[in-house]
Design a protein that fits this description.
195 residues, mainly beta, 2 helices, elongated
Length: 195
């Protein structure tokens, strides 16, 4: 599905995940982001671990491995860990987050007439990205085991890509790098606490 890009992003995500086994979390939550489901039709999940009275660590990600009708593609995987500082107490109220992200993608044949996204109509882009940003969010307690969260973040992504003439065929037209500054995270998440 993807070309063989540097695996340093994947290695970093795996090493980061393995380090969680040393945490003594008092609370662990599993979540899904409805905004990600809607924007990219992508299964996604996250785990959030309590680190202290006012800090937590979220490990989130998602993927899309299929084609859509009319040969539209939005194949990708994304990992996005985030450290959070809570103003009142963890898993309740306002928080600030510091996140990183890494992804691989194969996207094309989408008619989205907005800004940079209009390039996807007649071209296919394949590559990878990495970067980070900051976010603000709020979590509401719904019950002892359920919460709801909204968050929005902005930051940077360094994008490495190969450009092709259509979503299915063709010889590579170009390759390049692009520095993106803008929205890097948006979430409307339902959360369930495991303990």
């Amino acid at each position: 599905m993807f070309k063989n890009y540097p695996h340093s992003i994947l290695f970093t995500v795996i090493a980061f995940t393995c380090s969680l086994f040393t945490l003594n979390a008092q609370k662990v939550a599993v979540k899904t982001n409805f905004a990600y489901w809607g924007a990219a039709a992508s299964p996604n999940a996250g785990l959030e671990f309590s680190l202290g009275k006012k800090t937590s660590l979220e490990l989130g990600g998602g993927f899309n491995l299929w084609d859509f009708k009319d040969n539209r593609k939005a194949k990708h995987w994304l990992a996005q860990p985030e450290f959070r500082y809570w103003f009142c107490e963890r898993f309740n109220g306002h928080f600030l987050g510091l996140h990183a992200h890494g992804a691989q993608f194969n996207i094309g044949n989408w008619d989205i007439p907005v800004g940079r996204l209009e390039n996807f109509k007649d071209r296919r882009y394949e590559g990878y990205l990495y970067g980070g940003g900051i976010s603000y969010g709020y979590q509401w307690i719904l019950s002892p085991r359920w919460n709801f969260e909204t968050s929005l973040g902005g930051g940077f992504a360094r994008i490495h890509y190969d450009k092709y003439p259509c979503a299915e065929c063709g010889t590579k037209l170009d390759e390049g790098k692009y520095n993106y500054w803008g929205v890097t995270k948006a979430a409307l998440s339902l959360i369930y606490f495991l303990k």
